[in-house]
Write a structure and sequence with these properties.
Elements: E1 27-32, E2 39-40, E3 56-60, H1 69-73, E4 79-87, E5 91-98, E6 103-110, H2 112-115, H3 118-132, E7 142-148, E8 151-157, E9 161-163, H4 164-169, H5 175-194, E10 197-198, E11 207-210, E12 215-217, E13 224-225, H6 249-253, H7 261-276, H8 287-291, H9 295-304, H10 316-328, H11 337-357, H12 380-385, E14 389-391, E15 395-396, E16 407-412, E17 418-423, E18 433-438, E19 450-451, E20 462-467, E21 473-478, E22 490-495, E23 507-508, E24 518-524, E25 530-537, E26 540-547, E27 559-560, E28 570-575, E29 581-587, E30 594-600, E31 612-613, E32 624-629, E33 635-640, E34 650-658
Antiparallel strand pairs: 1-2, 1-3, 4-5, 5-6, 6-8, 7-8, 9-11, 10-13, 11-12, 14-34, 15-34, 16-17, 17-18, 18-19, 20-21, 21-22, 22-23, 24-25, 25-26, 26-27, 28-29, 29-30, 30-31, 32-33, 33-34
């Protein structure tokens, strides 16, 4: 795919790395420091002084102007081109409908400048046809290739999901999730390698996680077909291709001579990033020392990223088998040297007595085989719903966060480090303002909350903040009036250009979402395409959902989220970051108070069946409301007016812990 995009609802990053021939016009050769990413024309890195060697990337100044979907659609008789979903310097990707087969596909086109080169066209078609022969459940499939008018094109599988990069932007993966995904990626690479195809640009942007949490490799745009007898591969060049932080040393020095072990190197870099949230530096600490993962995974990473290809795993399958072995066998506990010596001494003593007293004719019974335990599922949905785990007694966040006034409607980022909420504490702009506080790591206290300021907060009351996954868009409920609304609570949004930059003036969402009644508690999905919120309607509360096809579009008409059970006392709703768990507060005639509940989201038409109460340990006889959960499923924040708090309404947390056996 062009520029690291693929046929999913994933917004592309700006395209900088391109397929090129040496010396092609409009190209500037720059070397990129593998340690800090600074682009340097020559010499050592000016920031960290790392010798660059041949860490080269190609930076383009040419910008391709993609055609409008309606204009492009006129060139394809069997495709309805719906929208542009990604573009780069040399091409673009569209979502399209294949009318005869009634399926959604991704349409990738390359610019007319490239299509006008006969040699390039011949090689492109030859290599694309080779890639079309790859049929694997963890590889984005190619359906058709060809040329139409002035464009070369590929029709590919459209996979609806998020990239691994988007997930990593929310924080590092749970180790169980990393060791579950890596064998899928490795199996797909081994399949391609067995057929002579090397990817050469393995990175999180090119790994799609679909709606079933399975990995798919996208963007074989830099792939090299090594058994191509008709000439050099499309991407053979005297400069290193790929993304610098993931590129093997030999690929940077001589991209024409790389083999499948370059993909193994990139896979090792990516495994480390999945475990720690960071790409390894030249002198990186093992993941077990940084974040406490299984030390056996350190050996997998270290062997994968060795500088000499001969010292790495020789196949992706070999790496896959090691990771699967680690996933299915428990780690041995480390024993100190003194304890080990003492154990040996005792064992020898006991063994000596045994040898002296045991008759020689006695035959020892064979040691019974103990079955290897299966790996524990530590996915967030399992942690939150399994009876093997329990909630802790709620803890008040204390006077550093809470005041004697009302503090409510919490939102927590998936990494658990940024807390936003609403408060009417002294110094607010209006009846209720939005606040934000941070902490550096889990377990540390939050810093003093900061008011988001008069640009965001108005004089009429603002509540229920919800931050997008990239942290650049904030959704919230507000009582502020405008020309289209009475003084009722509606859903608003504000944007900023970068994390830490000032927020822009808020905008009210359109009539597809807001009415003249009350809409509150917005919740945005990780991919930014689904907005869930609570609406007060004549018959009671309704949980509503509004969807859109891309983050640049407006949300569509809101519809009820589920069935009539939504109106049976269900109040404030949120979803886990992976979208699999619904959290809410709900009245129940059998119990006093307003209780916290959660349910596994398996059926869009009945999301609130079999709701599980948080139980007596968490729920009080007062009002507990607004539950939100961290990405790992282990910590839930909520608001409560229970009497042992700091103020009227306070923010509290409860944690999920494994029950003692």
């Amino acid at each position: 795919m062009i520029g690291g995009t693929h046929g999913a609802h994933v917004r592309p990053t700006r395209f900088t790395e391109l397929i090129t021939h040496e010396g092609e016009a409009r190209m500037t050769l720059a070397r990129t420091c593998p340690a800090c990413g600074v682009a340097v024309l020559e010499g050592n890195c000016p920031r960290c002084r790392v010798p660059l060697g041949m860490q080269a990337t190609i930076i383009s100044t040419y910008q391709f102007q993609p055609p409008l979907p309606r204009d492009l659609g006129k060139l394809f008789t069997d495709l309805e081109v719906l929208e542009l979903i990604g573009q780069g310097g040399m091409g673009a990707v569209y979502r399209a409908e294949q009318t005869k087969l009634e399926r959604t596909v991704a349409l990738k086109i390359l610019s007319s400048e490239r299509a006008s080169d006969p040699e390039f066209t011949a090689r492109f078609l030859r290599e694309a046809r080779a890639l079309a022969k790859l049929s694997h459940p963890h590889i984005i499939g190619v359906h058709d290739v060809g040329r139409v008018a002035d464009y070369l094109y590929i029709v590919m599988e459209f996979a609806d999901g998020a990239s691994l990069r988007q997930l990593l932007n929310l924080g590092r993966l749970a180790p169980s999730e990393a060791v579950r995904l890596l064998p899928q990626i490795a199996a797909a690479l081994q399949y391609a390698h067995d057929r002579g195809v090397i990817h050469r640009d393995i990175k999180p942007e090119n790994i799609l996680i679909d709606q079933y949490r399975n990995a798919k490799i996208a963007d074989f745009g830099l792939a090299k077909v090594i058994h191509d007898n008709a000439g050099s591969s499309l991407t053979v060049s005297n400069v290193g291709m790929g993304t610098a932080r993931y590129v093997a040393p030999e690929q940077s020095a001589n991209s024409a001579g790389v083999d499948h072990r370059a993909d193994v190197y990139s896979l090792g870099v990516m495994l480390y990033e999945m475990l720690t949230g960071e790409v390894p530096t030249p002198q990186f600490k093992p993941a077990s020392e940084r974040v406490g993962t299984d030390p056996r995974l350190d050996r997998v990473v270290e062997r994968s990223v060795r500088r000499d290809p001969a010292e790495r795993y020789q196949t992706a399958d070999e790496m896959k088998r090691d990771v699967e072995r680690i996933a299915t066998t428990p780690a041995r506990k480390r024993v100190g040297l003194l304890a080990f010596i003492a154990f040996i001494a005792i064992a020898l003593a006991i063994g000596g007595v045994y040898l002296v007293t045991q008759p020689a004719s006695v035959t020892r019974a064979p040691t019974p085989t103990v079955p290897t335990p299966l790996p524990e599922d530590l996915s967030p949905v399992t942690i939150m719903t399994s009876p093997d785990w329990s909630w802790t007694t709620p803890e008040n966040l204390g006077p550093d966060v809470n005041t004697e006034d009302e503090d409510q409607s919490p939102f927590i980022t998936p990494d658990g480090l940024t807390l936003m909420f609403a408060s009417n504490r002294p110094g607010t702009q209006g009846e209720m303002d939005l606040y934000e506080c941070q902490r550096k790591s889990i377990g540390e206290p939050f810093t003093t909350p900061i008011n988001l300021g008069p640009v965001v907060n108005g004089p009429h009351g603002d509540d229920s903040p919800c931050l997008s996954a990239n942290r650049l868009t904030l959704y919230f409920a507000s009582l502020r009036p405008d020309d289209t609304a009475d003084k009722n609570s509606n859903i608003w949004m504000t944007r900023r250009k970068a994390v830490g930059a000032p927020w822009e003036a808020p905008q009210r969402l359109g009539p597809e979402v807001n009415t003249r009644l009350h809409e509150y508690r917005p919740w945005i999905s990780t991919d930014g395409l689904t907005l869930t919120f609570t609406a007060l309607r004549p018959k009671g509360n309704l949980i509503m959902v509004s969807r859109r096809k891309s983050v640049n579009e407006s949300f569509g008409q809101a519809v009820p989220f589920g069935n009539d059970q939504n109106s049976h006392g269900v109040g404030v709703v949120s979803l886990s970051p992976d979208g699999q768990v619904v959290l809410c507060n709900r009245l129940n005639a059998r119990f006093p108070g307003n209780l916290l509940w959660l349910g596994r989201f398996t059926d869009p038409n009945a999301p609130f069946r079999n709701l599980l109460s948080f139980g007596e340990v968490v729920n009080s006889s007062d009002i507990d409301t607004g539950p939100v959960v961290t990405g790992d499923g282990r910590t839930v924040f909520f608001a409560s007016n229970r009497p042992d708090g700091v103020g009227n309404y306070d923010l509290w947390l409860t944690q999920r812990v494994k029950k003692a056996k």
